[in-house]
Amino acid sequence: MTRRRRARAGMLVALGAWACAFVALGLWQLERRVWKHALIAAVDARVHAPAAAAPGPGEWPNITADRDAYRHIRITGRFVPDRQVLTQAVTDRGAGYWVLTPIDAGEYMVLVNRGFIAQDQRYRPMRAPAGSVTVTGLLRMTEPGGGFLRDNDPAADRWYSRDVAAIAQKQGLRRTAPYFIDADAAANAPEQPVGGLTVIRFPDNHLVYAVTWFGMAGLCVFGLWRLGRDRDRSE
Question: Which CATH number fits domain 71-183: 1.25.40, 3.20.170, 2.40.160, 2.40.50?
């Protein structure tokens, strides 16, 4: 076999391998698209379902994002305002903070995101309702580490994400749920946190990615065809 034929054979093998790989990636993206659409439908059903009781300690080990995120839940207890924290937030209302206040349900505690306040409200009193209250909202998974390209700094009480475990440790909360609750929009007093601002958005670009991979596979097939045609002409 001449050097030219060996090079052509190598190109044919490489293009064939790349074509197979691109087809596999395209099929994988189509599978991901089916999964994503099922997830979106499931989350939509959870959000609009009647509020169920918040998961208690016995259920905590089995809580997962795929199955439980954005469940519509309710909890009854008493707010513990002296353990409240603010976490950095950016919403349609601008930059500001989420107001996270623990609620004591007796057997355990849950962090409740009561809502959003603007930056200039940070040093105003965000009084929580007194006495026994029932809060309804969406179950959210903890956000460990930080956000906005910054790490949480518990020692300085600077929070860039709603990291349940870190906040509970810093605030000395006992037996705290591994999730938090985004409170529904409520008739809060003026200058109080605005609830119900949860943004539920799942990127769904899988079809575009699939078309891209299949297009790449098509280019490889075209290259195989051209190489085969050139070989026939040379022979």
Answer: 2.40.50
